[in-house]
Amino acid sequence: MRSDDVDSHLEELTSRAQQGDPQAFTALVEETTAVAYRVALRTVGEPADAEDVVQEAYIRAWRSLSRLRDSGAVVGWICGIVRHVSLDRLRQRKRRRTEPFEETRAGELAEGLFGGPVPDPARAAEAAQTSALLHSLVGEIKEKYRVVLLLREVDGMTYEEIAEALSIPVGTVESRLHRARRQLAKKLQLVLRAQEKEAA
What we know:
Blueprint: H1 3-18, H2 22-44, H3 47-64, H4 74-96, H5 103-114, H6 121-138, H7 143-153, H8 159-166, H9 170-199
């Protein structure tokens, strides 16, 4: 099945599921479980936890399916729910830890997150601003390109894993990723130029 056919097939299943067809939703789950599980596993790290996350995510998806406005955006929407549930699971895991959190361990964690010594507050604030800007710009990219970009850059999946998860050829993954990066770069350049004009 060609990628455009896959997209329209998922869109049709989503529309039917939104009208209350449980069989269509079951088929939608079967079509998207691979990518949902990979996203969950990348986040929570444990296969058993990832399975629980995916189950909970689909329960939430079924309950809120009527709120999905663009049925063609279903894969990204499901991945978003999976990420939210995964982060909930990680927060629960942290709360269950009762051992004392020593200063040295806190420093090690911070260094691990930043890939080196902890930056000064000004740099940290600047990094947070840039991150928020990128997050906003990524949200403006067309759905089918955005999903591939997030799976690659956020979830760290390989081209082959993304291709398998989305049922599209590796070449399509590469071209969508290229377009996503190009769109993001253009949007970022426009914002930076606008900021430069304001500062001048």
